[in-house]
Amino acid sequence: MTDRPTVAFARFAMPKKGSAVVLAGEGGGLGENVRACDPESVLPRAFEAAGFSGGLAKSVEVLAPAGTELDRLSAVGTGKADLLGETSWLRIGGAAMAAARSASDIVIVADLPTGAPSAEDVASLALGMILRAYNFDKYKTTSRENGDEKPSGKVKVTIQCADPAAAKKAFVRAEAVGGGVILARDLVNEPANVLGPVEFAAKVKDLEKLGAKVEILTEKEMKKLRMGALLGVAQGSVRPPRLAIIEWNGGKAKDKPVAFVGKGVVFDTGGISIKPAGGMEDMKGDMGGAAAVVGLMHALAARKAKVNAIGMIGLVENMPDGNAQRPGDIVTSMSGQTIEVINTDAEGRLVLADLLWYCNDRYAPGFMVNLATLTGAIMVALGHHHAGLFSNDDALADNLTEAGIATEERVWRMPLGTEYDKMIDSKNADMKNTGGRMAGSITAAQFLKRFVKETPWAHLDVAGTAMGSPLSEINRSWGSGFGVRLLDRLVADHYEN
């Protein structure tokens, strides 16, 4: 992957080389500290020529600006001052990174006509730059020109601001979250021949370097736990399954943990109910829920969150081998409930069924949130701009919705109900793993609900948001890392001591 930019903070001074990016308020207004970058006042003339009025994340540039030694001088708009929030500053940072193009030395002058941004705003701007710089290019041996030029070598970013020490302190938390997002993106983007269940589990072990406790269960341990639903999915692959458990104990010993559970199907052919060939390559991302859980746990551990948290992911590959489970097979889950497998391509819920039961039984968490690229039906309903939210607890659902609005990783609550529950009743077992095409995402959630007892629980269907989501100022990657910032905000706002 492209090297992550290094970020430093400094007091206002005249940039001497490379690319400089300044901020422009609504109407193109510039702060007092911008004037040193533009002694010949070329920016106002450029604004007029380009019709630039300081709109949020809009930009204009001047090459080799007169009166300076800079290669490029760019301005990025911040829009209406009263509408600026955390996500606005992320977008401004992303736009600033794009405006700097392929420069290896970038100076950001964080000043506005209304005054200098706060340390937290500057930290968010810096995070936006890091997220925009992400580029999964590790397998490219040649580079081609595209919309975002690839920087050559390490990129150094210096952000000039009113209080560099405070900005540096605020950036510690932002950088931890950014590291989690980037980790999640890396995992989703990796090809399945490189990242199987065993390899994925090895990457999870790396979290021990941050102080987390990691336990990996093999097929032998899962058989002892009688995880027949999860193991049924895995039996068609020559690659053995793994169950990874991450513990972060940053809260008080008496505090109940909060739990996050992820579907980790490293590749999904559909099994015997095989998928069409067109687009099947995207199924390397069917572990987007697990990737988000690992990214979240990285963020919590890296920023030393004051919370007890559990991350649990089930890692399997769904293949149509001669040993694969068949439509019509009946498996017994860890809970003792039996499941008739109507469609082997409805496999993620089988994995989650055993994970949710085990997590609840072992840890008795305060709540459980599971993430899964579970159904195509959720994309029919919500497209790529919201994840589907299903929950048995209004307070948890409200907190998730609030966190989604704050981070712009939005969720939309979908219904649950006994009328949908009846659609997955089976003549031959306690339940079947699909209720058919109608209300497909809802019946999948109803299936999962049977494995959580009375514990507050939410299911996030991230099929439309974890991969292939729309490009933005802070993400140019196929794997988005969706869920890391959302859940970190959930924890920070409501569950930390």
Number of strands: 17
Mean pLDDT equals 95
Number of helices: 14
Helical fraction? 25-40%
Main sheet attributes: strand count, strand direction, barrel closure: 8 strands, mixed
Proportion of residues in β-strands: 15-25%
Secondary structure class reads alpha/beta
* N-to-C span: 36 Å
The shape, in one word, is elongated
Strand order of the largest sheet: 7-8-10-9-13-17-14-15
Which stretches are low in confidence, meaning pLDDT under 50 for 5 or more residues running?
A: none
Rg to the nearest angstrom? 24 Å
Q: Topology, please?
A:
Blueprint: E1 6-10, E2 19-24, H1 42-50, E3 59-63, E4 72-77, H2 86-99, E5 105-109, H3 119-133, E6 156-160, H4 164-189, H5 197-205, E7 213-217, H6 219-224, H7 228-234, E8 242-249, E9 258-268, H8 288-302, E10 308-318, E11 330-332, E12 338-340, H9 348-363, E13 367-372, H10 377-382, E14 387-391, H11 394-407, E15 411-413, H12 418-421, E16 431-432, H13 440-449, E17 457-461, H14 484-494
Parallel strand pairs: 1-6, 2-4, 2-5, 5-6, 9-10, 9-13, 12-16, 13-17, 14-15
Antiparallel strand pairs: 3-4, 7-8, 8-10, 11-12, 14-17
What does this molecule look like?
With 497 residues, the chain is an alpha/beta fold. 33% of the residues lie in helices and 19% in strands. It contains 14 helices and 17 strands. The chain has an eight-stranded mixed β-sheet, sandwiched between helices. β9, α8 and β10 form a beta-alpha-beta unit. α3 runs parallel beside α4. It is elongated and about 80 Å long.
